[in-house]
Amino acid sequence: MNATAQVQALPAPSAERLAYSIQESAEMLGVNYFSVYRLIQRGKLKPCRALRGKLLVPRAELLRLLKTE
Amino acid sequence: MLKRNGEICQAEVPDYPGRLTAAELRAYKAAVASVENQLHDLAEAARALSDVEKQIPQWKGQLENAASPVLAVAGGENTGNQWHVLKTLVKTNRSELLFCSRALAEGSEFAVFEKFDPNSAYAQAQGNPELLLTSNNPSLLLQDYVESERKMLQLVKQDLQNTVEELLAEKFPAEDTSRVVKAIAARCSKCISPAGQDVQPPRASQNVRVRF
């Protein structure tokens, strides 16, 4: 599946979420979830945090990585 | 007999020295069930990293292997400085971490690449493989690699704990689950460090001068 197809797999704007879990982000990027943590650690992906500190990846960051914005 | 808020504390769970009440044990089991796969992955990754660390000294002398396969790097095909794969450091279902070298006029250069599934959206958007670390000193490079992977595992562990805390707050809002969180944290720590010795960040007091 190419990048455009993956982005199309993101929820439609009506159901658009602002951020995704690490596992969901890994699925969208087509990588192992440890790779997402590596991207965060290297500063290539900037996460946000939920109330209890759980890492989330903003939708805009995913789109930026997939070069669709 | 130990009681907490009138409830008997007698349930023992792995890697946690304290005892939980029946309600805490219920919460603990629910939490572990929800992150069982991640706990397993974390333990496996830590074990694989530990194996790599043990093997590094044996790799000396094997580093200049001319028969090693070439790593196809975009733009590097016609430069005459192709990267050769020396070792696969980690292999998961969707990526590999590869220890590579290439010959330059001034000597060998070493690197760690992450090679993704070529069909993944990330690989197609960002290029594949991705250079993570590079050095002309293989020992330093591998030390750096081990260190960065340890930090990554710490990040995974912390996130797993936070995920559990969030889940417990949702499922058991009326209960004090602080001991359950501690028990899960102990289990996570054991996963990434079987000896129970977490990698601690440098102490803030290290460079503090005290005047008398």
Short summary:
The complex is a heterodimer of chains A (69) and B (212). In chain A, 43% of the residues lie in helices and 13% in strands.
Our measurement of the CA-to-CA distance between the termini of chain A, rounded to an integer number of angstroms, reads: 19 Å
Q: Strand arrangement, largest sheet of chain B?
A: 4-5-6-7-8
* Secondary structure category of chain B: alpha+beta
Poorly predicted ranges of chain B (pLDDT <50, ≥5 residues)? 196-210
- Number of helix segments of chain B? 5
Poorly predicted parts of chain A: none
Overview of this protein structure:
The complex is a heterodimer of chains A (69) and B (212). Chain A is an alpha+beta fold. Chain A has a domain at 19-65. Chain A has helices at residues 3-8, 22-29, 33-41, 59-65, and strands at residues 19-21, 48-49, 55-58. In chain A, strands 1-3-2 form a three-stranded antiparallel sheet. In chain A, helix 2 packs across helix 3. Chain A is globular, with a radius of gyration of 11 Å. Chain B is of the alpha+beta class. Chain B has five helices and eight strands. Chain B has helices spanning 22-34, 36-59, 121-126, 138-171, 178-192, and strands at 3-4, 7-11, 20-21, 70-71, 83-91, 95-104, 107-116, 130-135. In chain B, helix 2 runs parallel beside helix 5 (178-192) and helix 4 (138-171) runs antiparallel to helix 5 (178-192). The longest helix of chain B is centred in the last third of the chain and has 34 residues, at 138-171. The model of chain B is unreliable at 196-210 (pLDDT under 50).
